[in-house]
Each structure stands twice: as C-alpha cells, then as structure tokens.
Structures
1.
Amino acid sequence: MIRTRLARVPATGLSRVHVRGVATSLPRRLASEASPSVAAKVQPWVNPFPNDTFSVGPNNGFLPTKDPLAVLPKEYEVMDDLLERMRLVKKDGTPGLLATGDFGAAVDKELPEYDLTKVNDGELLSALYRDLTFVASAYLLEPCDIQYRKDKTYGLGRQTLPRNIAVPLNQVAEKIGQRPFMEYALSYALYNYKRVDPTKPIDYDNLELIRGFSGYDDEHGFILVHVSMVHHSGKLASASLRALDAVAANDRPAFNQAMQDVVSSYQTINGVMETMWGRSKPEGYMSYRTFIMGTKAQPMFPGGVIYEGVSDEPFKMRGESGANDSMVPLGDNLLEITAQMPVNPLTEVLRDFRTYRPRNHQAFLEYVEKRAAAVGVREFALENANSAAYYLAAVDQIRAFRHRHWNFTMHYIVTKTKHPVATGGSPILSWLPNQLGAVLDVMNETHAGIKYDELDPQLQVMVEEIGLRSEAQKRVLTRQVAKLQAERGEDSTVVDAVEKKPVNESAYA
Ligand code: HEM
C-alpha cells in the first residue's frame, strides 16, 4: 500500500534557528544517515519501483522513462482550457486570467471535481498530477503575484484550496506516492516538455513546454534548460554505479576511469547550465517566480493551507526548486560530501529537500549514499595520489555547479528582491553558501593531502589549478556572504527548523 507523504504543520509550530556567515567545516559527520554494512558493500542497485514514470536508468537518467503525456483525454478539457487561458500572456498574445486577476473566480465557477479514484494508468496519473499542481499553485499564489506587480511585496496567498482542486489532487498524489503540491521533477520541470521532433534527442532546440504560468520566453528557457541538463544524467548515473563497483572490487584502474567519466558527465551538464544566461534572462525571472513558491517557510502562508474535503489540518509543503534535482545530490552522495556537510539546521533543510522528489530517485540516492559509505569511496580515492586527483576533479565539478548556481542566485534574485526566502523556503543568503562552503572545505582538505611527487606528470597542473581556485573561492565567498548578511539583516539567514515527525508523515509501506 502506498501512503502519501504529507507535511502538516506540527502542533508546536515552527522553531526558528539562525545560522550566520558561511558555515565552517566543524562539527561534521552527523549529517550522514548511512549505516555501512558488509551486505551494503556488494549490494547491486535493484530498482524498487521499476514501473514508475520516473525510474532511474542508464539512458533516461533522472528524466521520465517516456516523454511526458502532453495532451489530456477529452474528459479533462475544462481543466485544459483553464490552463491555456490562465497564462499571464496567452498564445494569441492577449492577457490571460492570471494577468487580469480572474483565475480564482474562473476555477471556482468552471472546474468540476474530477473523480480520479478509478484512474490507474501511470502516464495519465503523472499528467493529471502535473496539471492539477499547476492549477493549485496558480490558485493559491494569484493574489501574491498581483501584489508583487503593484509594490514588489507578496502579501498573503489564498489560505484555502477549494475541494474541486484539493480532492482530485490528493487522490492522484496518493496514487503516485507524492505530496499534493507542485514538485520540480513530477510537475514543473521534468514532466513538462515535449519534443518537437520525437525522433531527435532531448536537446534544448528540440523542446517545447507543455505548461507554464507566464507564457514568457524566460520561463520557457528556465524550465527547458533544466530538462536539457538532466538529459545527460544517464551517463552520470552509470559512471557512479561503476565507481562503486570498482571500489568494492578494489579495481583502481576501473575506479580512475569511472571518476573521469563522472567528471566528463558533469562537464557536459555544467556546460548546458551556462546557457541559462542567454535562454532565460535575469530580468525576466520575477515575472513567473511567484507561482513556484511553496506553502512551507513562506510568509504568504503563515498557517499553511487548508485542503477542503481532504483534511481539517493545514498542509505545508516546500515550493518547486532545483534543490529537488537529483544530479548534485548524486555527486554529494557518491563522493561522500553529504557526510562532510556541517551539522546545522541548514543541512537539515538539505535533507528535507531530498524528500521532495520521485520515490525512485530517493531510493537511488539513498542506495548510492549507503553503498559509498560501506565501500569507502573517499578513503579508497585518497589512498592513491592519482585516484585522489580524479576524485578532486569530480568534487571540483560539484563546486563548479554550485559556484555558477550561487552566481545565478545573486543575479536573478538577490539583486532583484529583498524577499528573504527562496521558492523552496530556504533562507536566501545562508543556505546555498552552506553547501558551497562545505564543498570548498572538502576540496581544500583533499588537495592538502595529495602528494605531488606521486602524481602522474599530466595531473600535477590540474591538481594545482583546482587547489588554488578552491582556496581563493572560499575566501571570496566568506567575505561576500558576510557583507550581504550585514546589509540585509538576519531574516535572509533564518531557518524554519524542519519538522522531524510531522503528524501525517509516513514512509511507503
Ligand atoms: C536562473 C537560474 C536559477 C536560479 C535563480 C536558482 C535558484 C535557486 C535557489 C534560490 C535555490 C535555493 C533553494 C530554494 O529554492 O529554497 C536553489 C537550489 C538548487 N538549485 Fe537552483 N536555480 C537556478 C537554476 C538551477 C538549475 C539550472 C539547476 C539544475 C538542475 C538548479 C539546481 C539546483 C540545486 C541542485 C539546488 C540545491 C543546491 C545545493 O544543494 O547546494 N538550479 N536554486
């Protein structure tokens, strides 16, 4: 039986914890939930949900196994029509319901309460989940967007989700084992593309969006750059599994090769990431961002949201965020960076984010984390200068991702708004630097332990360059974050502590 993972507001309310500056490397280790065992050392990856739409594989990686279902059956045409008319600017160029502030009223009047209890087709369930989460987020956040367009504040969202959205959304969420709220993989980003030419690869120029809030090119670019990055994650997943097998078999040449393949996969992915600047401009980000905010740790929903016909208790859920992407957590877990994250409330938020993704991704990441700890990936790498160099190069790709990403955050968000929390509910000035700082610490420590005289000559220059860069970046980041935090005050660093055991939180049984 599958039970939904609902994050309800705990009776005690939220405690607020402050973390300032860039976290240092002390104290460590507590963050890892991995418990190494002999069995875990040799255990191959067995997919526990092979029939799920999101099933990790060597070809599709973290994308769905089949392209998303773009067109709903005719019986859902009212919802389809509402979603088409909803965009800030419609396909014909005229203002849509969200632009005029008429979306909520149209949903109240037109949307039937679909009975989804008998729907069992996986593809249809995924498409219904995507579309219902778009309706739900637009409904809840429409007032915030109107307010933001007036005075750059968000005010309050709608605090109740009416039953014609809440009941079917909850039904479909239960069936696919997810929360009843918009998610990065299952709705906004990775289940929201169609190929222009189905015979050609999932590359940016061959992609169209299925749903959007704004109808603007910037939202199109924002979503589809994510998709075209994740298109390259199959090679990354395969190389990661080979690295684990190589350590278990004590096969150093195979390990070194797998690490190089991990590096080249991330290089490709990071290369596509760089295209974000041109495909989705920083100036356009605020025009659609409001609609991907969550209901947890956001001032627009101080008491959570009541789902009519579902529960009398309010729900709080994190918003859509790339933090729910699986490529960086895969590297964090494989290279045992997760275990080196500082023990603090920010790292707890990282753990919480990792529960907002398809259950198959969760299982895969957990497997990699446990097995990497069991076989000792980091220790194996550090035993040999060349392996340590390849390991360092792999961690350097995680750094490159997070460093570019922090630059995105500065240019797309920090320079544009003073709102202190990101769409996923993390504090804007402390959360990302927490992880970037930890990666730089891991690199500096690794670099310091490498014996240059034992390195192959062609690796010496690479190791030296990586070491110099990570040292300099840690210094710059620490200064930059301290300055920003002093200017903005503590709100941008505050963490709403993660509810450890929300009332209705349950594992899949
Ligand atoms: C305009 C571009 C982007 C902006 C402004 C942006 C912004 C953010 C912000 C503010 C967070 C903090 C978490 C939260 O939402 O509360 C975050 C997290 C994250 N985002 Fe993005 N993002 C962008 C593009 C991307 C892309 C293309 C990816 C690729 C998959 C991505 C992956 C991630 C990841 C992995 C995290 C977690 C970071 C960590 O573990 O340290 N983001 N993003």
2.
Amino acid sequence: MAQFSLVSASVGLITLQNPPVNALSAVLRQGIVDAVEKALCDPKVKSVVICGQNGIFCGGADIREFGTNMRGPPLIPMIHAIESANKPMVAAIEGSALGGGLELALGCHYRIAHSQARLGLPEVTLGLLPAAGGSQRLPRLIGVPAALNLITTGRHVTAAEALQLGIVDQVTDHNTVDAAVKFSQSVAGQSLDGRRISTYPCPVQPNLDAFFEEAMLKVRQSARGAIAPVACVQAVRAAATLPYAQGMKREKELMATLFTSGQARALQYCFFAQRAVGRWSTPSGGRWDTSKPRPVHTAAVIGLGTMGRGITVALAQTGLSVVAVETQVKQLTEAKQAVSGMLERGATRRGAAPTPDRITYSENIQAVAGADLVIEAVFEDMALKEKVFRQLSDVCKPGALLCTNTSALDIDHLASQTRNPELVVGMHFFAPAHVMKLLEVVYGPRSSSQAVATAMQLGKKMGKISVAVGNCRGFVGNRMLKPYLEQAFFLLEEGATPELVDRALEDFGFPMGVFKVSDLSGLDVGWRVRKADGMVESGLSTGPSARIRQGRRYSPLGDLLCEQGRFGQKTGRGWYLYDKPGGRVSKSDPWLHSFLEEYRVQQGLVARRVDQQEVLERCLFALINEGFQILEEGIAAGPEDIDAIYVFGYGWPRHRGGPMFYAGMVGLAKVMERLDHYHQAHPDEPSLQPCSLLRRLVASGKKLHSQL
Ligand SMILES: CC(C)(COP(=O)(O)OP(=O)(O)OC[C@H]1O[C@@H](n2cnc3c(N)ncnc32)[C@H](O)[C@@H]1OP(=O)(O)O)[C@@H](O)C(=O)NCCC(=O)NCCSC(=O)CC(=O)CCCCCCCCCCCCC(=O)O
Ligand SMILES: NC(=O)C1=CN([C@@H]2O[C@H](COP(=O)(O)OP(=O)(O)OC[C@H]3O[C@@H](n4cnc5c(N)ncnc54)[C@H](O)[C@@H]3O)[C@@H](O)[C@H]2O)C=CC1
C-alpha cells in the first residue's frame, strides 16, 4: 500500500509500503493512485513528496506478478498523472530506485537522492526494457549516449554519478525525506512547465544513423542472441527520432514482444534462482536459517599458484587478514608481485585504497596457526593434499575451518585425515578466483552444518554466488562437464571440426565453444586427470577396442594432442593455432584438420556431416542428463542450484536460464526422446542413456520448474 500524510502543514507525503523492496505490486500501484488523487484534491497540500519505507525508494515492478494475470492500475497512466500534476511532485530516493521505481521518479518534477542511493534501469537483465516511459524519458533528460548505456547494460549508478548525469537534482548526506520536504516547499507555486520530462525535446544526436548502427552492432556482439538489448536500442532510437507519444507507442510494441518471451522467463527465473541458492539445506538437516556461521576474521591460503593468488586477493578485498603460504621460494616471490598487482588494479577500478598490508606471506605452514579458516589450493594431487590436511589438523587452532579448493577430489577422504572431520568442507572457486562469481561449497557426510554455514557466509561476503553441493567426483559443475566434453570429442571422430562444434555452442550463447575453452584452460589439465584415472594409453592403437576404455566409448584425441606438446594457448597450439605461446587469438589450424582426417582413416571411421543441431543435442542433453542424475542422487538440492552453477561459473547463457531450465523449455519429453535416439545409435555411450529421474518425470508429466 501507499501511506498518505500531511507534513509541515503543506506537504503531502506519500510513503510506498511493500517490503522488502517496495516493489510496485497491484496493491501498491492502487495505493499510489489513491494517494496522488488525495494530495491533488487537498487544498492544504501545496507540494508532494514520494518516498519509500525502510530506507528503500522502490525496487521496480513486482517481478513475481509477471506471467500472472496482472491486475491493478497500469504504471504508465499512473506516472503520467504524477507528471501532469499541477503541484510539484518530488521523489525522495533512498536505497534503490530501480526499473519502474526510477521510472516513477522520472515522472516526478524533481528528484532528491541520498548519497548512498543507487539508481538504474535493470529491465534488460530481466529480458525486458523500461516500458513505463523510461526508454523515452531518460534520453530526453540525460541525452542519448548516456541513456543508451544505462538502458542496454542495466547498470546501477551511484547518486554522485546520477547527479553528474542529470538524473537527480540534488544529493544529500542527511535525511532524504526531510531534504525533499524542504525542497518541495521551496518550489511550491513555481511553474512546472519546464519540469515535465515527456515534454522535453530529445537532445540532438549527431550522425544519428551511424551512431545507432554502431550501437546495434555492439549490443548484437555482446548480447550473444539475447533479444532485450536489441529492443532497448530500438526503443532509445524511437526516443531520439519520434515525438514522445509515438515513442511511447513504439516502447509498448517492443515490450509486447519481450514480455512473453522465453528469454524474459529465463532471465527472471535466474533472478530468483540466484537468491534461492542462499536458502541452502543439506540431507543431514543443515539449513541456512538454523545454522549459525562462525566468525571469520583471519583466513589462510595454502599454495599460491593460479588459484591461491586469486583467492588471496578476494579474501583481502573482503577486508579479512590473510596469511598466504607457499613452499616454493620462486613461486612465493612471483605470487607477492602478482597479488599486489591484482589488488592495485582492483582498487583503481573501484576507486578504493589497495589492501596489501592485510596479507602476511610465509613459506611455513605453521604461520596459519591463528587463522579462523584455511583454504588449501596446492596441486591437484591427493597424496599431497592428504599430507597438507594432516599438517593443518596439527597446526590450526581448535575450531578452525579447513577448506579445500580441489576441483574434483573426495572431500570426505580429506576430512578423514584430520582430527575434526566435521570442520572440513570444499570451497571450490573458479578461475580467476577474484573475478568469477561462482563458489561451490561442498559438504561431505561428516561436514557440520556450522561449517557449511560459515563457508556460505564467507562466500556471500566475498560477493560470490555460493551454492552448497554434495560430495562426488567433480561435484556439480565439473561432473556435468565430463559428458559434455566427451560428446564434443566423439563428434570430432564422427566428422565434425572444432570450429563447427564451437560455432554451434557460441551461436547458442556460450562466450566460447568447448574447444576454445579447452585451449584456454590447458589441454594438459584434463590429460593429467585421465592419466591418473588410468584412461590414457600412449601412442595410437587401431580398431574399435582402441577407443573403448573401462567398457565405454573413449576418444584418445585429446591425449594424442598432448603427446604432441599441444597444450592449447600456453604452447601456442591446441585445437587451434595461436600466433605465439600465450597468444589469445585462435586461428583455424590446417594441421589439426589433416590430423583428424588421418586419425579417422587409421581408426576406420567414415566422416559424416554433423550439423549444429546434433552438436547442441549431444553436448547439451548429455550434460543435462548428468544434471538429472545429480538431482536424483541429492548432490544438488534443486534445479536452481545447478542452473546457478552453470550461469555463474560456466558461461551458460543467462537468457536460456541454465541447463535444467533450458531442458524444461525444450520439453523434458523431447530431451528424453533425443537422448534415447542418440543412445540407440551409440549404445557404448552411457551418458546418452536417459537417467531414471528424467524418465519418471516424463512418465508422470511432472515439471522440474514451477515457472514452466
Ligand atoms: C532492490 C535490490 C537492489 C535489493 O537488493 P537486496 O537488498 O540485496 O535484496 P534482495 O535479496 O535482492 O531482495 C530481497 C527480496 O526481494 C525480492 N525482490 C527484489 N526486487 C523485487 C522485485 N522488483 N519484484 C519482486 N521481488 C523482488 C527478492 O527476490 C528477494 O526475495 P527472495 O527471492 O524471496 O529472496 C534487488 O532486490 C534488486 O536488484 N531487485 C530487482 C530490481 C529490478 O530489476 N527491478 C526492475 C523490475 S522490472 C521493472 O521495473 C519493469 C517495469 O517497471 C516496466 C513495467 C511495465 C509493465 C508493463 C507491462 C506491459 C506488458 C505489455 C505486454 C503485453 C503482452 C500482451 O499483449 O499480452
Ligand atoms: N586452475 C584452475 O582453473 C582451477 C584449479 N582448481 C584447483 O585448485 C588447486 C590449485 O590449482 P592451481 O592454482 O591451478 O595450481 P598451481 O599449480 O597453479 O599452484 C599450486 C601451488 O601450490 C604450491 N604448493 C604445492 N605444495 C605446497 C605445500 N605443501 N604448501 C604450500 N604450497 C604448496 C605450488 O608450489 C604451487 O605454487 C587444485 O586443487 C586445482 O584442482 C580449482 C578450480 C579451478
């Protein structure tokens, strides 16, 4: 609802009341309409202030209403009524003014913001555009380039930037409502003619056609198939070229195409999934709302290679004291330099002071004795990790949490090396650890709920999307990656090229195809794992048995490349060619194509035409099938957990909602039918056999997601 009160004898104060973020639900919209009418009819009221309760102006339209039969007064006439009022309407912005919230404020004649407030039009991140006049008013207020930037990226701006851009009229460090009330009194009675943004001409944009062509090219490149950014550019173009009323018509048409789109549903699902994963639970009864995390003031990191360095930076940036241990002197020296460089660059980006003084370096594990939490990031070698965990168990103070950043190894086995296995969890960061948003918190059967709660809370403080998952080989993300990679290799054997497979995946929306990613992370990483698993036989034998390992189809292609010293970008050659070792730009490699042809001849394989659809179905459905298996085993608590992991850690296109949501969009029956089809053609590939949960869901007609 919206509360109306008279303050300072002549100011009508309208307070938006819909916790937690004052989203513009039907009830709130009705409340605003009623309160505005009251204020305009009351002769005692000379000016009006609109604010939000509990320190937040408004988080925008109520996203939960989308997709339902929306009732209540529509936003657009409500905002027009505010703008056309003959008494000054002032928005008092505290906390956030986002989406419809900012559009409401843009309908007001003046905007006063608290210095800590943040403003933005994030609709594009939900697959929409600012369709309550935002796409037409903002360019008129701040000019086309600045408005286009905010609308196509959805980024939030600080109050200071909003003032500089001209979105707000004043910024205060004091009580925003008091400041707005005073301000409204000072302008009461003045003409409002120059204050109605819809009447402003849009500032002239030089070289309009070229400007919008370039803008469209840019969003198409970065949107990777997302439709909302494209519609946002079209809407702003309408603002720049059409009178306001016609621009509004165009805004509405564009919104109509977005509003019911699958992409909007997927993006809105991601918004809630990102929040849902914070409400974790474990099979042993641990829960987010009943488990109390332990305080963490000092953290330690063991091993300062690629991951340890990033983790150290992320911890220091969170404000913790960090003890960083590395046994190799050369690595330690390099790590110190790298960490201070990363901290400096991070501070420059955020406009904050660097924080290297919070880090103590040591070559000796004894230095971690005072830490509340330790994260081990030494080589992926079980014997080494066992030794480190035994040492930690001896050295650390009682109650210290012992975490491992292992990508795949058994957490419970590591816990068994310590005196307090209940204090051991996985904290699986993703490279680069100070940048990537995802953190898998892996609990073993003996991990205490307090240990899980502590790691989850620390992840949140570090700005990560933390997802609690059970203990199995590869946990959730890497486990699902295995069948995906496997299918990509098989497709090469059957006639595809790395370019074809990557193109299909990139067209689907991944930032990089599977072979480019392999080149980036290093082909030797998987090779080492396959060797440790006893899968690698050196040299190439021929005949079908050469491609069967442990009773299932196996492709030695990756191993053969590694034997040639082709480790990817680091060696300048992998699935692609690079101009030098460490080069970043991939080129098609004729050698690789001849190699594939020779390999097929040697193996008696006849290349056939593989199309993009087969690439997507085999790679993605095999990955999704593993996701169902993971759900069935209870390794992930729900589909949101898997989807969040893939969207935030593996580049799954957000506008497709994550693999499990995508399966629902495609239709579970179709996914199962295609898997069955491919499994019949390839009976030696168990990852193509639909798992029993998928079969049961299809048989019962049940859905995995209530949104679908
Ligand atoms: C606001 C925040 C910055 C706060 O952050 P924080 O404090 O960290 O809290 P959170 O944990 O994020 O949130 C707490 C809690 O609140 C829920 N929540 C947050 N925002 C919303 C919201 N807007 N709606 C509903 N619920 C919300 C959140 O989920 C949490 O709950 P939980 O999930 O249970 O844990 C932060 O929350 C934030 O960033 N929020 C989102 C801001 C945002 O994106 N706003 C934009 C919303 S979209 C919008 O405003 C669009 C419009 O206004 C346009 C409307 C026009 C509609 C016209 C329709 C016409 C259609 C025509 C087509 C016709 C088709 C046809 O012809 O049929
Ligand atoms: N590289 C990646 O992309 C990711 C790696 N991981 C995991 O993180 C862990 C570390 O991986 P990377 O950082 O890539 O390895 P790395 O090889 O870059 O670094 C490991 C570091 O540990 C040091 N070290 C070895 N034994 C030590 C000991 N006893 N005490 C202190 N330091 C010791 C080494 O000298 C080296 O500097 C592995 O378990 C890996 O599986 C997890 C996610 C992603």
